[in-house]
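Batch manifest, entry 17 of 40.
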Amino acid sequence: AISTKFNADFKHNGKPPDIQLVSSDLVLFLVHHHMLAEASTNRFNALLDSLRPFTTVPETSNFLNIILHAIYGLSCSEFQPTIDTLMTAVCLFPKYGLQPKRYIHPSSPLFSDIRYQMPLSPLMTYVVSSYYELEDLAVITSGHLLSLDVSTMSEEMVEFINPVYLKRLFDLQQRRVDTLKRLFAAPPDLHPATLRCDFIAQKSLTRAWSLYTARLLWDARADLTVGEIERTYRTLDDHVACFDCKCALRERVKGIVIEWSEEK
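Output type: structure tokens
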């Protein structure tokens, strides 16, 4: 089989391909010698030194395809590689003398390809990003790991992950939990006393707020959603008779939701 992208019709700056690579599953890729030589620090794992008309690359076509797309600065999204395939391909970059940081940054096609697929496997993405210190990708991915339990990580991942990035993830989780507790520490504001709801009566809302908050924060999670917050206090809202107390409660919840939504 011949690659649908890297074939005889594929030109770079008007130049036709001048080298033929064959993947381990026998797919032919026609590319440019100078592109691989300029990209690689080890002459593409010394494969460019071969004098044979066909150079065999010991990788399957799906991985080689991603590597070549990265070298040429092209997106491989049309082939719909899975996130696991993308990240495994990234792990092969050093083998072929390619620096992951050079090809995975916010303005690169490969970064976009990974970012699109990342929510399907954020842990693997974060682990690989940490290992190669792909800061921007790691930051984006961390938002999908707010509930990560390190016990769910395989031994291989634990060994592979950069400990600095693992600590950052734990710090992020703890910071969000601390923020959550701070946001709920203050009950709704008291309103001016009325004949139907004096300051003593308003204390019932304060006590109810403390009770609902204790339930919500019993197992405080960094990934607590805005929806969970709103549902919890909607129940309390239904039991508040005083209109002014309702307004104070809703204003307090609204403020919490806005600040929590903006928390990074």
